[in-house]
Design a protein that fits this description.
Length: 294
């Protein structure tokens, strides 16, 4: 076989494998959307769920998912940004730094159920926070922190060293160079990683079963006092998220229209995760284009 024929054969095999993977993923997504979208309506998205009656929605679960995501990112973004800046700009190249990076790699590959059990032991039991939004957010912080830290570090390292030299040559301090030159240049990559991490958190279930709880108490959306037990902003209340709700419907089977609600909730979850991914790509390209044209 000539080298050209071997090259065409190998290329064809790779294209075939890629095509099979795309077809499988597209078929799965289209099946979920085709089964669920007909059941999605404004009423479905806004009404509370029902355990032993038909006609319930996912309003509270959907709010809980976004609120828990907000609290998680509020905790994890500053920590990961500081850790990424330290590892990229200040950490010396020695065995301690290598150990830290190894620990980050190990933590990023932990199964979410292990993180959930760790959060249950540390936050729910030891810290006596109970099944609550704050317990779930702190557990998801441990789950998301290694990935965000690695993303920030890699985005900062991708900035060419001449940018650093230019900042120092202008008389800026090292910290001023990082904050005024390096971070703005790396912002598209950082923002993309943050949004993709948000999408991963939004669809998480295993870690939240053991920390945020499996119930969705009725909420009074006219009461915005964070200390009130019925307030949507109370971080110490239980909060069943959309992903946990889907798992609960299919595991307990106490809902007459369970398959319908599960299909609709799955479609909403898939659309939300897809939206996070498309938003990350769009904003990343938009910011990068603005910065390069400025």
């Amino acid at each position: 076989m000539t080298p050209k024929k071997a090259d065409r054969l190998a290329t064809g095999i790779l294209y075939g494998i890629a095509g099979i993977i795309v077809v499988i993923l597209a078929s799965l997504l289209l099946y979920i959307l085709a089964q669920g979208l007909p059941h999605v309506s404004f009423k479905f998205l806004t009404t509370p769920s029902k355990s032993f009656q038909a006609g319930g929605g996912i309003g509270i679960q959907l709010f809980n998912s976004f609120y828990l995501l907000f609290i998680t990112m509020l905790v994890s973004i500053p920590i990961s940004l500081g850790a990424g800046i330290y590892l990229s700009e200040y950490a010396p190249n020695n065995w301690v730094t290598g150990l830290i990076r190894t620990a980050i790699e190990i933590l990023s590959s932990l199964p979410s159920v292990v993180v959930g059990l760790f959060g249950f032991l540390l936050f729910v039991v030891k810290a006596q926070l109970g099944f609550s939004i704050i317990s779930g957010a702190l557990a998801l912080t441990f789950f998301n922190l290694p990935l965000l830290t690695r993303n920030v570090e890699e985005s900062l390292k991708a900035v060419h060293f001449t940018q650093r030299e230019a900042g120092l040559a202008l008389g800026l301090s090292r910290w001023e160079t990082v904050t005024h030159v390096i971070i703005p240049e790396a912002l598209p990559g950082i923002l993309t990683g943050v949004i993709l991490g948000a999408g991963r958190i939004f669809g998480e279930a295993a870690a939240l079963i053991y920390t945020a709880g499996q119930s969705a108490p009725a909420l009074d959306f006219t009461n915005w006092n964070p200390l009130s037990i019925s307030s949507p902003l109370n971080i110490f209340r239980q909060a069943e998220t959309l992903a946990v709700h889907i798992w609960k419907i299919n595991s307990e089977g106490n809902m007459p229209d369970g398959p319908t609600v599960s299909a609709g909730a799955s479609a909403v979850l898939i659309l939300a995760v897809l939206l996070f991914n498309f938003l990350a790509r769009f904003l990343g390209k938009r910011i990068h284009k603005k910065m390069t044209s400025a």
